[in-house]
Amino acid sequence: MSNSNSRFIRQLITFITFACTFLATSASNAALIHQYTFLSGTAIDSVGGANGTLFGGASIVGGELLLNGTGYVETLGNHIIPTAGDFTLSMDVKQTAFGSAYVELISQGSSGSGFYLGYSPAKTMRVTDAYLNTAIPFPTDGLYHNYTLSVSGNITSLYIDHVLQGTFLNIARGIGGTNTRFGEQFNVNGLVQEYFTGSMKNILVYDTNLAGVAVPTPSSYALVLAGLGFMGITRNSRSRKTISKSR
Asked: Is 79 within a domain?
């Protein structure tokens, strides 16, 4: 094996080691306590056992939870959002239809002290009953976006696509009341609905604050692959220069 090949292999191993460490470090010190990938065709919590049940027009196809504006998923017997202590919620969401009403992506609890993440008729984010309306725009392009809510002490940070959008003090945690729901508001005597229309996937809950940008995503792996491709192109370019000089 030539010295140049040996050097390239050493560089490749170093890069892969760094990349794997980068992707794993953020979550290595945190426990993933709930995970819904929907890959099994059901609303199974593959980590915490807080399995969900589909209601109304909810369905699961191809690893996506599909909600048509009349259905939702409820984790029967469980509140998956911790009602005390630090946590991180991450979910990939694509809204496909927009009405003039309030809409919730996830909720638990009851009116006045309820936990939820959603948006108002003005298409601005709502972050629990403590922050009914914010000035943060909800994406309306009909594409998938990642929403991450990270709680550290009494400070909560909201990220959209891993970019910090705002911080909030003392959010409502949704103690008691309705169990966690995906795609609908907690139900107060059947009067509150606020259905979501679109799809969801990769709903994750960690037991600590991961600061939003630290939650591993497919884009992180794409960056690693891009790095590997760049190394290959660089090596190929060097090899061509060497051949050209030898001529």
From this structure: yes
Which two tokens mark 26? 């953020």
Residue of 82, 122, 89, 86 whose CA lies nearest to 106? 89
Name the band, by pLDDT with cuts 50, 70 and 90, for residue 99: confident
**Dihedral sign, Cα of residue 226, residue 228, residue 229, residue 230:** positive
3-28 and 218-246 helices, crossing angle to 10°: 170
Nearest C-alpha neighbor of 95 from the set 34, 159, 147? 147
- 189: CATH: 2.60.120.200
CA dist 217 and 81 (Å) reads: 21
Q: Is residue 209 part of a domain?
A: yes
For the stretch 187-190, contacts whose Cβ atoms lie closer than 8 Å and that sit 24 or more positions apart, written own/partner, are: 188/110, 188/111
Structural domain of residue 173, as residue ranges? 30-214
Residue 95 lies in a domain: yes
Q: Which residue has the tokens 């599909």?
A: 66
Residue 21 pLDDT grade (very low, low, confident, very high; cuts 50, 70, 90)? very low
Asked whether the beta carbons of 191 and 122 are under 8 A apart, the reply is: no
Per-residue confidence (pLDDT) for residue 207, from 0 to 100: 97
Domain count, the chain: 1
Contact (Cβ atoms closer than 8 angstroms) between residue 92 and residue 136: no
Residue 74, Cβ density class (10 Å: 0-12 exposed, 13-18 middle, ≥19 buried): buried
Q: pTM of the full predicted structure? A: 0.77
